[in-house]
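[agent] plan:
  1. take the single chain provided in the ticket
  2. run structure prediction with default settings
  3. attach structure tokens to the ticket
  4. add a short note for the reviewer (M.T.)
[agent] executing step 1
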Amino acid sequence: MASEDVKTSEAAVSTIVNLAEEAKIAREGVKAPGYAILTICKSLVAGGVAGGVSRTAVAPLERLKILLQVQNPHSIKYNGTVQGLKYIWQTEGLRGLFKGNGTNCARIVPNSAVKFFSYEQASKGILWLHRQQSGNADAELTPLLRLGAGATAGIIAMSATYPMDMVRGRITVQTDKSPYQYRGMIHALSTILREEGPRALYKGWLPSVIGVIPYVGLNFAVYESLKEWLVKARPFGLVQDSELSVTTRLGCGAVAGTIGQTVAYPLDVIRRRMQMVGWNNASSIVTGDGRGKVPLQYNGMIDTFRKTVRHEGFGALYKGLVPNSVKVVPSISIAFVTYEVVKDILGVEMRISD
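[agent] step 2 finished; step 3 output follows
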């Protein structure tokens, strides 16, 4: 009798275990696709918020940088960071400091969302290939592989939102005294399409692709590698455990941003000047009084580079570098930290450092 009871109990336990396993499998099967989609959406939201917050925080410096990049050397209005910001404030007020920021956020939110998400997906794919080729299931991404993942993410995000960057550049350059005004993002897009054709929306795309490889690639590679080094090496007692403080992350982001923007900056100047080609009022808008001539008739990236150096010297390739340097450190730092904080708030397990 006792053995029958034992057998009955074992059978009952086995049945319960089997039912529990089946229920778990069924639950996961139903939940997995929706859960994956939700995780992707949360990751995109985190990236978008990171981009919007970081760019708005440094919008005045972003506008000044672009004005310096395309400024007519024969009619200087913006002479340095402090003077330039004061001049914008005096002539255009608070709205002038944030001109083009709405269009910039409309561009940077999807750009940042796609960039961060693409980096995570590219990192996973590259890590899988690396482990398959090396035969080491525990292999980690090297700085060079992170550079590749970051470059891939940058090219995808930049290409997807490039027309918005083109429009943002032109809206940012115009002032209240400009003879012709783009009334907003939609008006600018329709005007450029009507007057210059669809290809005009991708002027400067090639130097952007070339520039985004070291810029975004180095940003991600330096940021992730520096964090990994701090966690493993724990130099100077900076890290007590595997979780880095917000201040430390800001420092990592600042180093990453400084290195990336310094390497890629000349291509950003070339890109911005190419975007002004074909805009009849560009010279007037930049100089404010129509005096002097900017060599705006560029024919491709090489021609733009050659004419810029010939007419204005090699230093012209770094016009606006100071306000950009002041801007890029908090911008990149805030973007990385905001991204990780928002993902923590939304409860996303996957992080860029994973």
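[agent] step 4 note for reviewer: Residues 4-8, 22-31, 284-295 have pLDDT under 50 and may be disordered.
[agent] ticket updated
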